[in-house]
Amino acid sequence: MKNIRNFSIISHVDHGKSTLADRMLEETATIDARHMRDQVLDSMDLERERGITIKMQPVRMRIDHGGEKYILNLIDTPGHIDFSYEVSRSLRAVEGVVLLVDGTQGVQAQTLTTLQMAKELGRVIVPVVSKVDILYARVDETKLELAEIVGCDVDDVLEVSGKTGQGVAELLHTIIDRVPAPEKSETDDLKALVFDFEYSEHRGIIVYLRLMSGTLKEGDSLELAQSGNEFKALEVGVAVPDRVSTEKLGPGDIGYVVTGIKEAGVASVGDTVREQGAGTTPLQGYMIPSPVIWASIFPESQDDFDDLRQALGRLRLSDSSLSFEEESSTALGRGFRCGFLGTLHLEIITERLKREFGLELIVASPSITYCVTSEDGVEEIRSPARFPEHGKIEEIEEQWASVELLTPRKYVDILMQLFYEYEADVKNTSVFGDGRTAFDIVMPLRELVRNFFDEVKRVSSGYASLSYTIQEGWHEADVQRLDILVAGELIPAFSRIVSRRRVEQEARSLVENLHELLPRQLTATKIQAQAHGRIIASQTLSALKKDVTGHLYGGDITRKMKLREKQKEGKKRMQKGARASIPHDVFMEVIRRSREK
Ligand code: GDP
Ligand code: MG
After folding, report:
1. What is the pLDDT of residues 19-42, one digit of tens each?
2. Which of 46, 233, 278, 357 is in the most buried spot, having the most CB atoms within 10 Å?
């Protein structure tokens, strides 16, 4: 145990965590050159396509140090604000963290937030400047900043390049020197903290855990302390990063156990694995984060309802920040109201449902929670379609967020303009290090989730950064419900709650997007936006020409046939009403466009 070091890499998004991890895996010969590819720990296709890390990923490495053999367990973590829960989970499973700051960008708001989390847990922090190979990197300034926020000597800050590999070996040895070995526990009773799950079709739930005390081997009779599920360890092992079975796991180790449990929803992260019937006190678990936004998801075909339930259950295993409950709607049938940590999170989950489970879905516009007082009493409402009619509403209240935003001086003016657009109120300003400005802001959560994060990034060319917390209590909200009608029929999935001052703008852009996205119908179709019982924007989609395949030149006959099939299906559906003639992809595309506009 004295030769084990457990650590994770934390940083702001894109500061080079996954690339540094690649070099560590090479340096320790964990992955041979033939199998190496960029950001190898980003194992999901979706992660690789978008170049972002969504899930934390553990990996075990071996290294010689001072004539002895050591085991290094690394947990790579995501950096986007929507996935910070993954970070907080990994921090509980390790003794130390590498705090990585991009030398071309300097310290960012999220660097500070994660650093704070690591400090509160008493983790040893190894400060490192990354991307030092880049000519214009401000290495010395960044080292000073890091020393200041960590509270250490400038000489204790290391330099690495994930591109050239410079400094990586030194960093690994420094980790062994500075990060303590796992503490020896008082008992030999098995206590293991569950920090992640995976599901295997053949072998059921696979639990990733950190052993705090005791040992674990194949065949052991075990149980999950909180959920009460009992199981036999079908296999134990470590991730390198593929799973490799080992004889046993000992105290301080990070590894996995195959449980054979097939029912979803039984287990959650933060649970403790212990011996069956041992009755040992469980470890302190995790706080499950509350969702920030909600969206109702319906299967396009009601026959897929059970598949959707199962798919959500599976995804929840590896993403405990996802929550869902059944709901039904007269127009859309049975579905689920799902809670997410942000709109990117929503987008990733729906994309995974589609790709990994082949589901075709109708996703309603996301919303935060509103507290609505009407003739019928007070109710917390999370779905725009469930808002009472405007005449019945007495008061609408919403939550606010406290935001900490950090920016180089030259973006201050343009950001101030953005604050105005997003109803953000600056409470305090302070100047940080080299003239960068830190803002303390309060703003409606509704505005924050309206892609504030991405807009801040855009106007500052990626240099400004932010972190936020949701405040306690409720504020009166000046909002209205905006509805969309297609061919005179209200489409509940498009309804949304918007700030009164943005209703008309939002109405116009929604109608315009739908005009572009909706396929033409047999007759001309009106697309209208309505608020407070009034039509405030409208466009007409012209009627369909006779042959939809006309514009498809070239020889792909199967594609044409598919289209004809679709056209036939479309006709069938249209007789059932307008709703069915809206292709399911349009729902997600509308959400994506309003996130990226
Ligand atoms: P993460 O989001 O923190 O995991 O960051 P990634 O490892 O995905 O890196 C983000 C981007 O920075 C990628 O395009 C990398 O190729 C690039 N990058 C990472 N490390 C270095 C480095 O040391 N030098 C240079 N020049 N580029 C780097
Ligand atoms: Mg990454």
Report:
1. 999 999 999 988 877 777 777 777
2. 233
Question: Which is more confident, 201 or 311?
Answer: 311
Report whether pLDDT(372) > 50.
Answer: yes
Count of CB atoms situated within 10 Å of the CB of 134: 14
Indicate which atom in ligand 1 lies nearest the CA of residue 12. 3
Residues contacting residue 340 through CB under 8 Å, at least 6 positions apart: 82, 291, 292, 293, 294, 295, 321, 322, 346, 349, 366
Q: Which two tokens stand for residue 242?
A: 């593929």
- CB atoms under 10 Å from CB of 228, counted, come to 9
- Can you tell me which atom of ligand 1 is nearest the CA of 79? 2
Considering the entire predicted model, what is its pTM? 0.74
Helix (H/G/I), strand (E/B), else coil: 140: helix
Is residue 16 lining ligand 1, measured as CB closer than 6 Å? Answer: yes
> What CA–CA distance (Å, rounded) separates 172 from 565?
59
CA of 38 to the centre of ligand 1 (A): 10
Q: Which atom of ligand 1 is nearest to the CA of 9?
A: 3
Buried b (16+ CB within 10 A) or exposed e, 303-324: ebbeebbebbbbbbbbbbbbbb
Residues ≥6 apart with Cβ < 8 Å to 431:
437, 438
Residue 143: which H helix or E strand, with range?
helix 139-150
* Ligand 1 contact via 514 beta carbon (within 6 Å): no
Residues 6+ apart with CB under 8 A from 279: none
pLDDT at residue 110 greater than cutoff 90: no
Q: Is the CB of 218 under 6 A from ligand 1?
A: no
Burial of 568: CB neighbours in 10 Å, binned 0-12, 13-18, 19+:
exposed
Q: Are 150 and 115 in contact (CB under 8 A)?
A: yes
Regarding the beta carbon of 13 and ligand 1, being less than 6 Å apart is answered yes
Residues by chain with Cβ below 5 Å of ion ligand 2:
17-18, 53
- Angle value at C-alpha 457, between 448 and 354, nearest 5 degrees: 70
Other residues' Cβ atoms within 10 Å of the Cβ of residue 266? 17
Give the span between the Cα atoms of 467 and 154, in whole angstroms: 26
Cα-atom radius of gyration of the chain, to the nearest Å? 26
Kindly state if the Cβ of 39 falls inside 6 Å of ligand 1: yes
**164 three-class SS:** coil
CA distance 483 to 529: 6
- In the predicted model, what is the mean pLDDT of residues 517-544? 90
Report d(CA 299, CA 246) in Å as an integer: 42
Q: Ligand 1 in contact with 103 (CB < 6 A)?
A: no
Are 86 and 78 in contact by the 8 Å Cβ rule? The answer is: yes
C-alpha–C-alpha distance, residues 419 and 425, integer Å: 7
Contact 222, 274 (CB under 8 A): yes
